Amino acid sequence: MSMKNGLSVALLTFVLAAPAGAATVAMAFEERSQGPVSYVSGGIGEDQAAAKRRAAANYPLTLEMASTAAGPRDAYISNAKVDIWDASGKDVLDITAEGPLVLVNLPSGTYHVAVNWNGTQRDKTVVVGGERRQHLMLEFPNTPGNN
Predict the structure, then answer these.
(1) Are 96 and 124 members of one domain?
(2) Does residue 109 form part of some domain?
């Protein structure tokens, strides 16, 4: 595990002291950064998804991504391309999501979010800051390129 920041040290301590099942959940929380923006990505499996949802209160922006399914629930997706720009058009985050949830720690401001999966793009503008948190649920068609 990378020791890039204090969070990684805390996670390593948790993983070493926790039961084996908890280690899988902790590994989902490796916080990464691009410039001043930090994020976590994942949420595959019930344990990881539940842990990420609990952690969402600590991040101004939560992205949740799914494809429309024939059943009663949408199917979560991974490998979506996520791009976020600030109000001046500067790229602040450019990642490929490792699961259906991406939690982003952004400075206060207005941002443009573009998520592309399976040939379909979803665009949103969000405002975050102070106690203002945003949760974006982005749904994609099952068939490539359909909007």
Answers:
(1) yes
(2) yes
